[in-house]
Amino acid sequence: MTVSSTLNPTPFGFISFDNNEQFHSTVRAQLAQDIDVLFAYAKLPSPLVDACRYVMTGQGKLVRPLLVASAFANVNDNNKNINNKNINNKNINNKFDKDTAVSDDLASLLENDSDYDMARRAALAVELLHTYSLVHDDLPCMDDDELRRGQPTAHIVFDEATALLAGDVLQTLAFEVLTAELPTFAPYDSNIASQLMAIFAPRARRMVSGQMLDLNAEASDSITQTDLEAIHRDKTGALIEAAMLMGGICAGATAPQRMALQECAQHIGLAFQVQDDILDVTTSTDTLGKPAGSDEKLDKSTYVKFMGVDQATDYAQSLFNDGRAAIIREMSSSTDNIDTDNDALLALIEWLWSRKK
C-alpha cells in the first residue's frame, strides 16, 4: 500500500506510541490532512466550501474518529498477537526465523492491503456525519444555539441557508468518501467498503430518528428513563457503534470481535450521553465550548433530571466499566496478558471517562 503523506502512513496500530496523547495527536493530524484532501477533491463553491471547512476544523474532541482508529488498533494488535502465538506454536525456535516471519507478515499487510486507508476513510466518514448533525442541530429551527466547539455556529458566521447546505453536503460526503478516488489514499477495497456501508447507513438513519424522538420528547411530560435511553441509543449511540465497528472491520475483526466492539459501543454511547447531561450542569460555557445549561433552557429530559448528578455519575461509571469489560473479555480469549495502559481502545475509554467537555 502506498500513501503519499507527510505523516507516518501507519498511525492506527502498526507502530508503538509512547502514550495515549501521542496516538490521539497523530490521528487528529492525519484527519486534518484528509479533510484538506477531501475538500480539494469535492470542488464545492463558495461560501459552501468555506462553511464546510469552518465547521470541520473547529476545536472538536474528534471522539468518533478516535474510536475508529482505536478499534482498528485494538483488533490489529489482538490479531497480531494471535499470529505471533501461531508462529510460536509451530516451533519456530530460531530467533531470526521468528522475527523474519513476523516482519514478512506485517510487510505483506502494508504493501498489499488498503486496510489502513479504509480506516482513514471510515474515520473521515464518521466525523463528516457527526459534524453535519451538529450544524443542523444548532439551526434556529432546532436548538437555536450560537456557540459550538468554542466558536460561533455556522448559521451565525455565514447564514442559515449556507449552514443548512453545509450540513447537507457533509452528509453526502460522509458516504462518498468510502469509495471516492482520493489522492493520498490507496484505491478503496470494495469488499471492506460494502461492509462499512452496511454498518454506517442504518446507524446514520438511527441517529436522525433519535433526533426526532428527542424533539418529540421536549413536547411531552411523560418521558421515562427507559424512553430517554431509547432516544440516546439512537441519537448518540448509533454513530459511536458505527465508529467502533467500522474500525474493527478495517482491521479484519472476527465475528466475536465485532460482537465485543458492538457491546462495548452500546455501553460507551449511553455513558457518553449521561456524561454530557452531567457536564451541561456542572461545567462552564468556556470549558464546554457550547452554551452550558442549554438542556434546562430547552426543558429537555436528562439523566440529571431523572437521577441527580451523583447518581448519574455512578451510572456513567458503571456503563464505562461494562464497555471496558466487553473488550477485555474478548482480548482474554486470545491473549495471556492485557496491558490496559497501552491498548488504544481501553486507553480511549479511560480518556472519555475523565473528560471535562
Describe the structure.
The protein is mostly helical. Helices cover 70% and strands 1% of the residues. The chain contains 15 helices and 2 strands. It has helices spanning 20-42, 48-56, 63-89, 95-112, 115-137, 154-157, 160-176, 190-218, 225-235, 237-250, 255-282, 285-288, 294-297, 303-332, 344-353, and strands spanning 147-148, 151-152. A two-stranded antiparallel ribbon has the order 1-2. Strand 1 and strand 2 (151-152) form a beta hairpin. Helix 5 packs parallel to helix 8. The longest helix has 30 residues, at 303-332. It starts with 19 loop residues before the first helix and ends with a helix. Residues 1-6 and 85-113 have low confidence and may be disordered.
List keywords for this structure.
disordered N terminus, globular, 357 residues, mainly alpha, 15 helices
What's this entry about, in short?
The protein has helices at residues 20-42, 48-56, 63-89, 95-112, 115-137, 154-157, 160-176, 190-218, 225-235, 237-250, 255-282, 285-288, 294-297, 303-332, 344-353, and strands at 147-148, 151-152. It is an all-alpha fold and 357 residues long.
